[in-house]
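Thread: sanity check for a docking pose with zinc ion

Original post by kr_44:
Hi all, I'm comparing my docking run against an independent structure prediction. Below are the sequence and the ligand SMILES. Could someone generate the full complex and paste the structure tokens? I mainly care about where the ligand ends up relative to the chain.
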Amino acid sequence: MADYSERDVLRELFPETARELFGDGHQAAAPTLGLYEVADGRRALVNGGRLAELEPLEPKGNKAAHCDLCHSTRSRNEVGIYRARSGERLYLYLTLCLVTEHCQRRAGKQGLEQLAERVLSAHSVSDEG
Ligand SMILES: [Zn+2]
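Reply from moderator J.T.:
Ran it for you. Here is the predicted complex with zinc ion included:
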């Protein structure tokens, strides 16, 4: 089981919401690493205090896809395409399993860290469209 809670995630991503829901009596959340589903099909990639928001895109084609997190080859209907904003006009495109729980379990902490580094430190990927 994960040792971080939904509460910690909420507190990091939406501190005001967390305050409303849980009150203000807790210590600051521990550093968090993970990929979380947030509103509107978006996902948030969190590593410590850094956060990248992943925006879902319309999938195109029906070829098999390679997941950028767990590195499994999946069929198209098992993955989503996400766009992470990494600068004013810079985007990083990611293919991720829709069932993120299993995906993250396959990837492990190291896989998540690598993805987080890639997304949160990306500066040189141009906008493809
Ligand atoms: Zn995956």
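Confidence is low (pLDDT under 50) at residues 124-129. Hope that helps with the comparison, let us know if your pose agrees.
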